[in-house]
Structure formats: structure tokens, C-alpha cells
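stage 2 :: seqdesign
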């Protein structure tokens, strides 16, 4: 057998061919021991890199799920200013307190009349005509609704799909946030302001109830930034505050507004 290919056992003390003892030193380890030492250190580094790869993939997937619909979606045509144009004017409060005494009639017993739309027409008929395609007014200003893409759901509503006129900043929430101190004329104007009115699917309106963004956002994610901007615009116009949670949620769903907010600060 060729001795060059025979692996001799390693011992703490080695002897030279002349019989002299060789002291172990830094380079006295066998190649096998060196390889094992390197392999033991390489394993945890490989596992760490593997976990980093998974984290990057999951993060990228989440960003696509979150940002892509906002950037590529088709929000309603009725736009509001970007958050950095309005949110600095909105007062922030820790939480919403319930103020007793709210009644819908405190914002007007009915919709305000809108003679320009037609005889006997109100704000409701005016907004249905303005926001829905193909809406016609019949006898007594009774609307024959057309259709529109619901801003809360992203689905076509109208016809057999009942619609309602929603207050983007709910009347009950406005009462709690300061409208209880307004005079009746201001409350009536607020309830009939087109900037605060939107035609939506009946079920979506009921699901929202009197919630603010911290508690509810439209199920159609591509429209959430549009909704946040509309809420902020109304809040700024009427000096109504929003909670810290409301602001955080609104900013989260408007990633394209972040740059402006950073420079604003």
C-alpha cells in the first residue's frame, strides 16, 4: 500500500523520524480536524441566511399585498386633497368620548331642500343625480337610480343593489367630537355638505355605522386612501378632531402621502 495515502492517527505528542518529539502548535492539527472546525462554524451562518431569505420573501409579499392595490387601484373620481395638505390642521385627541344627547334631528329633521335640482328635491336626490350614472328624477323628485361603483366595496351598486347616502365623517361621531356645541345652522350645513356625502352600498353603510377610521375602513383596500383623505378634509374644514389611532390608520393606507408628511414635519 502506498503510505502517502494512509491517514495516521493524530496524537497530542508526535515524534519525528529521527525520534525527536514535536510539540503541538497552531498548525499541528490534521486536515480532518481543521475541516470539522470550519464546518461547525459554517452551519449556524447558513441557517441564519436561510431565515433572512424567508423574512425578505414574506416582507416583500406583505408589501405587495398592502401597497400594490393602493398604487394601482382606481379610486373614486371624487378626490380630496392629499393628507399632507389637511392633516396638519386636524386636532388629535387620545380617544373618542361618548357625549350623551345625540339625535339625528339635531342635524336637521330632514334633508335640506335643493331647488336647483328640481321642485321638491332635497340634498339626497341631488347627490344621487350627481354621483350615479343614469339616475333620473321622476314625479315628485323621486329618483330612478342608475349605477355607480361603490367606493366602499368596489362593486357596482344601484338597481337591485340598494344604496344609501352616507356621511363620511358620521354625524354621531361629529357630535361626540365637538358638534354638540355647534349651533343648529352649522349642524344642518354639516349634514348636507356634499364634501361629507357619498353614495354607498346599503350593507357597507350599516357595517360602518358611526365608526371613524381607527375602527373601520372600506373593505376595498384600493379605496382606503381615498376614504382617509376625505375624512381628513372634512375634519379640517369643520375643526373636528381625530384620534391618534385614526391618524395612524389613515397614514398607513396612504403610502404615497408619506413623503409630503415627512417634509411637512
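stage 2 :: out
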Amino acid at each position: 500500500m502506498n503510505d502517502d495515502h494512509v491517514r495516521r492517527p493524530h496524537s497530542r505528542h508526535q515524534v519525528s523520524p529521527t525520534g525527536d518529539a514535536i510539540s503541538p502548535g497552531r498548525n499541528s492539527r490534521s486536515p480532518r480536524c481543521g475541516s470539522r472546525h470550519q464546518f461547525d462554524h459554517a452551519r449556524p451562518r447558513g441557517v441564519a441566511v436561510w431565515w433572512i431569505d424567508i423574512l425578505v420573501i414574506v416582507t416583500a409579499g406583505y408589501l405587495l399585498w398592502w401597497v400594490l392595490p393602493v398604487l394601482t387601484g382606481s379610486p373614486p373620481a371624487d378626490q380630496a386633497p392629499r393628507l399632507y395638505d389637511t392633516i396638519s390642521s386636524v386636532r388629535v385627541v387620545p380617544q373618542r368620548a361618548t357625549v350623551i344627547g345625540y339625535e339625528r334631528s339635531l342635524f336637521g329633521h330632514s334633508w335640506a331642500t335643493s331647488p336647483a335640482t328640481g321642485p321638491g328635491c332635497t340634498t339626497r336626490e341631488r347627490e344621487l343625480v350627481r354621483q350615479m350614472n343614469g339616475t333620473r328624477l321622476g314625479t315628485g323628485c323621486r329618483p330612478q337610480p342608475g349605477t355607480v361603483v361603490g367606493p366602499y366595496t368596489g362593486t357596482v351598486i344601484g338597481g337591485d343593489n340598494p344604496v344609501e347616502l352616507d356621511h363620511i365623517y358620521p354625524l354621531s361621531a361629529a357630535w361626540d367630537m365637538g358638534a354638540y356645541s355647534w349651533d343648529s345652522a352649522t349642524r344642518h350645513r354639516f349634514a348636507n355638505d356634499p364634501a361629507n356625502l357619498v353614495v354607498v352600498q346599503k350593507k357597507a353603510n350599516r357595517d360602518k355605522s358611526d365608526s371613524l377610521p381607527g375602527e373601520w375602513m372600506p373593505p376595498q383596500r384600493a379605496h382606503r386612501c381615498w376614504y382617509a383623505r376625505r375624512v381628513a378634509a372634512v375634519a379640517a374644514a369643520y375643526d373636528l378632531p381625530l384620534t391618534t389611532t385614526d391618524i395612524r390608520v389613515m397614514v398607513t393606507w396612504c403610502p404615497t402621502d408619506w413623503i409630503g408628511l415627512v417634509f411637512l414635519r
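stage 3 :: structure notes
- The longest helix spans residues 31-72.
- The CA atoms of residues 84 and 263 lie 9 Å apart.
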